[in-house]
Amino acid sequence: MSCPDWRGLARRRGPLHGADPAGWDDAVTHFENGCPSCRRAALLAEPMLVFRRLRGSAAAGAAEMSAAQEASEVDSVRQAVAALRAAGRIDASRSRRFVHWRWAAAAALAAAALSIPADNAWQLQQGRGALPSPAAVMRGAVLPAAFAGDAEMPAVEGVNRPGARIYHMDGEGLSVVMIVDESLDV
Amino acid sequence: MAPVRRIVASFLAAVFLAAALGAQAQDTDELGVNAYTFKYLRAGEALPLVSTLLSKRGTVELQPATNTLVIRDTPGALSRILPVLRTYDHPARRLTIDLYIVRASRSQVSPPTPRSDLPELMTRRLRSLLPYDIYEVQAQTQLTAREGQPVTYALGEEYQVTFRLGSVAADRQVKLSDFRVQRRGDRKAPAVPLIHTNLNLVLDQTTSLGMARNESSPEALMVVVTVRNGETSHRLQRAERP
Lengths: 186, 242
What we know:
The structure holds two protein chains of two kinds.
Chain A: H1 6-12, H2 24-32, H3 39-45, H4 53-59, H5 67-86, E1 102-103, E2 116-117, E3 122-126, H6 134-137, E4 142-144, E5 156-159, E6 165-171, E7 174-180
Helix pairs in contact in A: 1-3, 3-5
Chain B: H1 2-27, E1 32-37, H2 47-53, E2 59-63, E3 68-73, H3 75-88, E4 94-105, E5 115-116, H4 120-129, E6 134-146, E7 150-155, E8 159-165, E9 173-183, E10 192-202, E11 206-212, E12 219-229
């Protein structure tokens, strides 16, 4: 099978949809089978596919990914986010009711949070060590404006795990957040 | 081609000039100052909300002694912020919170035998995003609390969730501040903190907060939380059975 048109599929796919566009399931299977040619394009189209990687490996009876491979996958997602931002694909206007991309940087203060909606609904943010503590850090402070826009705030505002990676996808009636950290004893 | 280039260049120059003049006009708007003294809430609670509404030139200052926020911003921004604050500063309401602790995992047998204690639609959505096909509810509760109240709840024998319920903002957003999930082991041993964060939720929208060691972990722990207005709510109905 040739590589799927990930960009086209992503355009036709809404977040937390009831029905995926034609070809989506085949494309996901293609990704899960580990095609190296379009892996980056797939993660760019849908970063949460990074969670699906092992399902494919397990189903195929393949060995689990090494730490280096995992790091590479996660790095691909990070690069995808950076590429999106650099390419200016993230649109600051919230155009559709349930369909928007959002990337946010976890910040020590809510005031420093960044929320940039665009045309789908995932975000990856790097955890930071400091946790918001309004009473402790905001008293008497003069805060610069963090950003203009509506009052919607990031779903997760600071995490007590400095190395955590936080994935977030919003959709109609359901918001899904995944916090990933090697030190989590779950 | 040259005339076309000249036309395009002129057009672009005109666009840039208009944008520059627009930005300059915005920059020269005189900043206004407005002090808002809160009647029901602590002013500090509104800081994050205000910060999201400020223009690029705006600032907000907290005066705790008088429970006041002093906001300096353009007239347009002030006219946007003040109505939001008036709505935000309201007597504490009762809210209903549904909390579930869910263990998500991958089926270890072939062919996979997916099962879920969660509603069908939620299960389908989670499966479309995550590599887990089994969702087992470990503990669940439904409780009511007033805005501003601290909530501590032991879910089953193993987990404890604590947070402070924030005030509803813009009629739909609510913050669970100081949100902690802890795992209690032996009764004599101290609880193990798993996550400490602040959650911004939308009323009536379910949020699934998952925790995993890495993206390819065979299992994850999830806290599924829904906050609703009032004291009645619709509990999640278990859906699939093996």
